[in-house]
User: What shape does this take?
Amino acid sequence: MPAAARRVGVLAVQGDVEAHARALARVGAEAFRVRREKDLDGLDALVLPGGESTTIAKGVARLGLTEPLREFARAGRPVLGTCAGAILLAREVENQPVPTLGLLDVVAVRNAYGTQVDSFAAQVDAGAAPGLDGLRCVFIRAPQLRRPGDEVEVLARVDGRPVLVRQGNIFAATFHPELGEDPRVHRLVL
Ligand code: GLN
Assistant: This one.
């Protein structure tokens, strides 16, 4: 993993691409929109943004990006998926068929907080990974990540449920670290 990733791709199919680009700028990285395989050349890391996972998954397939994205991740470069991006990384989606990249050993449950609490903000539970204390998380029709495999490390929880996990170079957040001013998640990944 590079000590400081400078050139970071943001999958630009649908979703909050621009907010991630701004968040990356805040941690001194340069964001590049990824829409074709060629766009991955020379990147140090990659972000899969939030949005609508079904739409993003269709776009990934249509653009022929499924295997290139898998190869990018398997080469060991950091990949961060947020919200819908986290769903795309999962090995499986429990409640709706979304073709995923299968890079993270968790089962994603879409819209797992139901319609009553479409969106909310909450602080991570005590005992988060070093440097993440007090992190405030914004959830928007958020998924949950269940049944993490042995290689998955839970870096932060809210109400006891994993909200930020890591499996080697793969990171997934069920919330939106690109919203607000806290740069810690982007910094951690890079
Ligand atoms: N509910 C969306 C989905 O299932 C994810 C929401 C988001 O990315 N903010 O794809």
The pocket of glutamine is lined by residues 50-53, 83-84, 87, 110-111, 140-141, 143 (CB under 6 Å).
